């Protein structure tokens, strides 16, 4: 585990706090579709969804007033805010997307009262209003006398949570003595990542067991790992669970353990 303060996480350059105030003048792409029930989906460069606002029903000028924290790994990406018209019975319709270049955060960390135009099918479909605040990874500094000043302590940061392998799992309850294990990783009791399932092994080594997560309160953070056996059931049996406070892990790392 690595925290933002002390040892920077590989790839991550910082955290973006995006406050979405709302949108104004949203227009439906279909003139006969009636009023909109808008929500916003947030991503970098239109890849996987990182966050989503609540839906405001029957309102072309929604007020979301939500803040979402996003881990930034490259200033070459764009922040994309896709605005959708929610539909309960069929796929929600995209009204358009508002875009912000992350490279603009590199020189100026705070952008307040931004008004980003929502573009759909080459036409203006409204405006999104938001604030952006970028918090770079804290790093140690080399002083003029050559001494290294460590990064300041922080209660918030980015954590890389990794589960590499498990050994000698109990396969006695399997008909063939071999398991189909996978790991479920938790932060404060909530699932943050799940490894892939490995077939017929009691000594799994996972190559996708890493997840970068945002820690908003280090002192209260508790990490957990549950190893399960995939049996194609609604609820797979648990082989074991481990839980530990994040502060305890960081203390052990500081002591070289």
TrEMBL record:
Classification via Gene3D superfamilies: C2 domain
InterPro entries tied to this protein: C2_dom (IPR000008), C2_domain_sf (IPR035892), C2A_Tricalbin (IPR037761), C2B_Tricalbin (IPR037765), Tricalbin_domain (IPR052455)
Compartments where located: Endoplasmic reticulum membrane
Keywords from the named record: Endoplasmic reticulum, Membrane, Repeat, Transmembrane, Transmembrane helix
The organism's place on the tree of life at top rank: Eukaryota
Annotated GO biological process: endoplasmic reticulum-plasma membrane tethering
GO CC, alphabetical: endoplasmic reticulum membrane
Domain C2: 1-118, 144-257
Protein name: C2 domain-containing protein
């Amino acid at each position: 585990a690595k925290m933002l303060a002390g040892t920077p996480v590989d790839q991550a350059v910082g955290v973006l706090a995006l406050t979405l105030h709302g949108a104004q003048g949203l227009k439906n792409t279909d003139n006969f579709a009636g009023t909109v029930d808008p929500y916003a989906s947030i991503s970098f460069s239109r890849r996987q969804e990182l966050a989503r606002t609540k839906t405001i029903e029957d309102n072309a000028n929604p007020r979301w007033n939500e803040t979402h924290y996003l881990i930034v790994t490259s200033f070459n990406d764009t922040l994309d805010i896709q605005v959708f018209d929610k539909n309960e019975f069929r796929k929600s319709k995209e009204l358009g997307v508002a875009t912000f270049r992350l490279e603009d955060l590199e020189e100026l960390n705070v952008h307040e009262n931004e008004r980003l135009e929502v573009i759909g099918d080459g036409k203006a479909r409204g405006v999104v209003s938001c604030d952006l605040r970028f918090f770079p990874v804290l790093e140690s500094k080399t002083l003029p006398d050559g001494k290294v000043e460590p990064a300041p302590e922080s209660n918030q940061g980015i954590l890389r949570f990794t589960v590499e392998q498990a050994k000698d799992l109990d396969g006695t309850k399997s008909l063939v003595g071999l398991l189909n294990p996978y790991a479920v990783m938790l932060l404060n009791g909530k699932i943050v990542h799940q490894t892939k399932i490995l077939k017929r092994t009691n000594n799994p080594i996972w190559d996708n067991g890493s997840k970068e997560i945002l820690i908003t309160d280090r002192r209260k953070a508790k990490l957990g790992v549950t190893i399960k056996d995939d049996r194609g059931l609604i609820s797979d049996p648990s082989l074991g669970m481990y839980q530990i406070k994040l502060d305890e892990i960081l203390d052990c790392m500081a002591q070289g353990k």
